[in-house]
Amino acid sequence: MRWEKAMLVYNRKAGKEKAGQLGEAVEALAGEVGELTLAQTVEPGDGEKICRERGGDYDLLLLLGGDGTVHECINGAAAAARAPEIAVLPGGTCNDFARTLQLPMQVGRAAEEVLAGRVLDTDVGTINGRIFTNFVGIGLITETSENIDSEQKERMGKLSYFLSTLRTLRQAEPFGFRLTHDEGVVDSEAVMILAANGRSLGTAKLPFAGDGLHDGMLDVLIVREAGLSLAWQVLNGGDLTDYRESGGVIEYIRTSSLRIETDEPKRIDSDGEVYLQTPAEISVLPAKLRFFYGPEAAGLLSDEPADSGSGPGLFGS
Ligand SMILES: Nc1ncnc2c1ncn2[C@@H]1O[C@H](COP(=O)(O)OP(=O)(O)OP(=O)(O)O)[C@@H](O)[C@H]1O
């Protein structure tokens, strides 16, 4: 028996209706878990409460849901006296953090990866005392998350994220900000600021080097113009090389912490959940929580130091 006690927290409302996910997860894990507790979230906030109050009682915590569920649950689990090992089972719509962990997108297969035991100390971010796994942002990204039409999301899944983005693009107003990072200060206007720990946004791969989860750093994009094709490319993980040279339309900063002040308080998007506002104090908590990874992450387990940004991504060289 690999784990004495495990708890599987699941959000039935996450993602599109996919019958059998819970059964797949239990089936895959039952043989290796002595006592498996199932805890269902009944309303927003439950995942955090369950994980805060009981997470420390388990060796293994399984989170079945999307990025919002993961966001809630890790905020609870990180506060537990002894944080358990955490497995994300992608039952949401975008599942961006599960993508960063390079997990298969089927719940049963992701659960099987837990048995492979690729568990690693992993960076998370902190913003105004809350934890995020994948990203925080202000401006366009917040409007994108808030404009998602839930019916459309239900029907179309990941595509809805981008359709929603296109709708908000036409309304993006620049805001004034001051951003203080490890090596300086930027005083300017932008339509979006994004600080990423993970590597996926709205299912698209972000154009940064490395896996982002073992470098103690955040990758920050300041986007100054909301040209349709430009923002599309940013959010779609496209090739930004041209824009890198384009007179500062997009500025890229790598930093371990940052402070963002804005002219007016701006709402903040944390892992797709919008409930904080600026000013924002943001930093990395290196190797804070232990997460399970997919097969592609095998290289990270070797004796070689983890990739700290020198990989093939656009901004790596
Ligand atoms: N029982 C519940 N009823 C309604 N909402 C819930 C319930 N449990 C959790 N929630 C809320 O559901 C929201 C959406 O969940 P989640 O983000 O996991 O799924 P998703 O939006 O489909 O996936 P993703 O964020 O990966 O696109 C979260 O904000 C969470 O607080």
UniProtKB/TrEMBL annotation:
GO terms for molecular function: kinase activity. PANTHER family: LIPID KINASE BMRU-RELATED, SPHINGOSINE KINASE. Belongs to the diacylglycerol/lipid kinase family. Signal peptide: none annotated. This is YegS/Rv2252/BmrU family lipid kinase. InterPro entries: ATP-NAD_kinase_N, Diacylglycerol/lipid_kinase, Diacylglycerol_kinase_cat_dom, Lipid_Phosphate_FormReg, NAD/diacylglycerol_kinase_sf, YegS/DAGK_C. Its cofactor is Mg(2+). Pfam families: DAGK_cat (PF00781), YegS_C (PF19279). PROSITE patterns: DAGK. Residues 1-131 form the DAGKc domain. It comes from the Bacteria.
